[in-house]
Design brief:
Elements lengths: L2 E17 L10 E20 L4 E5 L12 H13 L3 E8 L10 H16 L7 H11 L3 H6 L3 E5 L4 E4 L6 E7 L6 H15 L13 H9 L18 H11 L6 E4 L6 E5 L2 H15 L3 E7 L2
Parallel strand pairs: 3-4
Antiparallel strand pairs: 1-2, 2-4, 2-5, 5-6, 7-9, 7-10, 8-9
Helix pairs in contact: 1-2
The structure holds cytidine-5'-monophosphate.
Cytidine-5'-monophosphate binds next to helix 5.
Length: about 300
């Protein structure tokens, strides 16, 4: 008999993202404000004891992942191997978070699988630190999703997390159709740009000592947020993003920026009405060239 658990797997947006110089291990130091939003995939995890590990994933067919190489199977395999418990696992995903968007969909799914397996097997459960380390080995954004923090400052390569207190807000996610962004490629583009411009700025605006100030900033009107995203000027199709900047400038109380390394753009506002007005403006202008999702800050 399989045991069955269904959980939501939330998306994140990066309200702020500064990237430092590539480290010796290939990763880049970051200073980022992670914020969870209520756009989510739904994951059903069925599992039973087995003599050897097996895992089937349903619902990702449209993404064209190689069998066993998607973030959910990798998380399931990593947890079972780490704790020494072979399981027969079936994962069913109802996908709503677009991939290649910078919304952390794959990382969130991996964290959901790790959390469920860990919480359902008391005798084998990893301590939080060990679970976070396992998550970080799967992806730099996975630890944020494992913390359960609605918002956090992320440092290191994203795995050093300090909770932040954020306010309420509505979010419009605008995802271009026809292109997405590879994270590794975006970091390479940034390295190349910096090599040309000789900009090596490892002094971040926000560090651990600034979490009080950051929480205060998050309570202000999003139109006043002093945030930026270093990937903004290295993503492809600049004309697409310039149009979004222009549309956003009609709404001074709203913050707009790329999330992660793209390709999605997010608008954040306190007033639902304003966000719905932007939604109308964007869908009238871009039509079928974009997918638009409305969400709330968590
Ligand atoms: O950790 P994750 O698998 O999400 O990262 C994908 C790729 O993005 C890494 O292989 C690396 O090239 C790049 N990356 C980076 N610095 C980070 C996070 C990711 O260079 N802090």
């Amino acid at each position: 008999m399989y045991k069955k658990v269904t959980v939501p797997s939330y998306a994140k947006v990066n309200l702020h993202l500064e990237v430092g110089t590539r480290r010796d291990d290939g990763y880049h130091p970051l200073s980022t404000v992670f914020q969870k939003i209520d756009l989510h995939d739904t994951i059903t995890i069925s599992y039973k004891a087995a003599h050897q590990f097996s895992c089937v994933v349903r619902g990702l067919e449209a993404l064209g992942c190689l069998p066993g190489k998607d973030s959910l199977s990798l998380a399931a395999r990593a947890w079972c191997r780490r704790v020494g418990l072979p399981l027969d696992i079936v994962l069913e995903v109802e996908k709503r978070i677009p991939s290649g968007a910078g919304l952390g969909g794959g990382s969130s799914n991996a964290a959901a699988v790790l959390s469920v397996l860990n919480s359902m097997h008391a005798g084998y459960a990893l301590e939080q630190d060990a679970l976070m380390a396992l998550g970080a080995a799967l992806g730099s954004d996975v630890p944020f999703f494992l913390t359960g923090y609605p918002a956090a400052l992320g440092e290191g390569r994203g795995e050093i997390l300090t909770p932040l207190v954020s306010g309420e807000g509505s979010v419009l996610v605008v995802m271009p159709k026809g292109f997405s962004v590879s994270t590794a490629g975006a970091y390479l583009n940034l390295d190349e740009l910096r090599a040309v411009q000789a900009v090596q700025d490892d002094i971040f605006t926000f560090g651990k000592d600034d979490v009080g100030r950051l929480s205060d900033i998050l309570k202000q009107s999003p139109g006043l947020w002093p945030f930026k995203n270093d990937f903004r000027h290295v993503c492809p199709h600049q004309e697409f993003y310039e149009e979004l900047v222009l549309r956003g400038s009609h709404y001074p109380q709203v913050y707009g920026n790329l999330t992660g390394s793209g390709a999605a753009w997010v608008f954040v506002g306190r007033s639902t009405g304003e966000i719905l007005n932007i939604k109308n403006e964007i869908s009238t202008f871009f039509g079928a060239r974009v997918g638009i999702m409305y969400a709330n800050l968590l």
